[in-house]
Amino acid sequence: MTDLAVIACLAFDHRASAEELQRFKACIVQCPQVVRTMEVCGPFDLIVEGRCADMVEFNAGLDRLRTTLARLVSRIETSFVANVIERSSPRDETQALWIPCRGGRRRVPLARIDRIVAEGDYMRVHVGDWSGLLHQTLGHLAGQMLGAGFVQLHRSCLVRIAFIERLVHDGRRWTARLADGTAIPVAKSHTHDVLRIMGGESSNGGAGSAMAAPIGETPAAITENDLTLLQ
């Protein structure tokens, strides 16, 4: 039975070759105990969510990876999920907006909307390659959509969480890169909510670190056997 959920945040050693890191990440993704991985920018480079039966299995898998981690990773921090708190998010097709279009109004389920951007007194609703203008305030739409899989990036923009591909930090501010190639800055007032919803928060400076991997002297070749994560 698998009942231990683990979140591992990894910062890669700048001396490791791009080819080795790519092979490492590819093998991590294929591990059966790995639920998902996220490439991020900021204090860490990769966040891995995994599951195993218990601490014995986790520690055994970690011991097998320790040499490889020492060569490629400068810092790793782990957390064990105690409880998952999720917003109540209606997923049924009854949640929709009626958007004016030629000849009438078009019914668009919230799950199909990519983003909404304020344009004066109107909101431009983007649905794939199509967009329409809706005479509403962003505050009114936010009250309906923030509990249904959307996040507010700044005072003029709502985005469907699943439409965000990456969160990038340039040392001063966060930027959300969307699936259509658009880059939208995240306002400081909304940064906390964005990172919390996207699962991108991590501790700073190693405080409270569960473990720290040593930095290897010289990156060396890795093998498939080195990368059997948590099994």
Automatic annotation (TrEMBL):
Superkingdom: Bacteria
Pfam families: AsnC_trans_reg (PF01037), LytTR (PF04397)
Protein name (record): HTH LytTR-type domain-containing protein
Transmembrane portions of the chain: none
Domain HTH LytTR-type: 99-200
SMART domains with a match to the protein in the record: LytTR
